[in-house]
């Protein structure tokens, strides 16, 4: 028998849609939530003959259309499917909300492992660690080589002034969510505004490129996941973001820290990633610390927004541990950002 009740899935309706739109599917279908939360929800869908699919839909409740646009995500992976960028094959898109009360799309399930902690990183054989890291940075290089217009993604976003727009947006967001004076946040915002680098070209920018969003199979990148933040813009913003999430040995206190895969001995260093990117793109990374500062500062502004919403009760109940986590995040990240600019 198929799944009788799964939050976020109208089993009968979605099964009927599968039968009409997905070639080779054999009902009944079984649905199980892979990842949830405030981001888009991801479900594993298995049919009676052993075929496995992935369904993506927006989070439950009221959401911003622009932040959880299923048609946009589906278009991105469909457009990248014929390229050399590893993505899960797109199989179908449903924009009829009478089916499941929200848009959703279907991908083919990609086998593999997401390495999202140093504990998991230890499971990568020593001989495969450097080659895996090389593949991670090479995949980003290849993504940044693609001409958005050629693959039909030229209208994904504005191409010009990416960094300036980011600085304006997050300056405003932070100002609207401030709860106390944090001199580092103000100083970083000023330095970012006064030193905006010239943008050289506009590429597809994933927006959240890190180990935690990569499906790895046989120690190579099998699929880039979570395209909801993807846009067009300055490719160095992607690289700066990756470098911030690329912890090195000795930089973290807890061995199972989320996204600390690269802190395991034998993984490439940040300098290795930078050298590879320069060699294979020819881009000038003199100002890479600016992009790292921008990434830290943006995350600090996001944490401040979450902290403010918790204080106001918009995010539901919270305890001092949760509040202090987000408040401390703002302090830590803004200091890290300032360090990169000095």
Largest beta sheet: strand ordering: 1-2-3-5-4
Please give the alpha-carbon distance between the first and last residues: 61 Å
Largest sheet: 5 strands, antiparallel
Q: In the CATH classification, which architecture of the largest domain applies?
A: Alpha-Beta Complex
Stretches where pLDDT is under 50 for at least 5 consecutive residues are none
- Beta fraction: 5-15%
List the helices and strands in order.
Answer: HEEEHEHEHHHHEEEEHHHH
CATH class of the largest domain: Alpha Beta
The CATH homologous superfamily name of the largest domain equals Aminoglycoside phosphotransferase (APH), C-terminal lobe
CATH fold-type name of the largest domain: Aminoglycoside 3'-phosphotransferase, Chain: A, domain 2
Number of domains: 2
> Given the helix and strand composition, which structural class is it?
alpha+beta
Query: Mean pLDDT, as a whole number?
Result: 92
Rg for CA atoms: 21 Å
- H/I helix tally: 11
Given the C-alpha coordinates, what overall shape results? globular
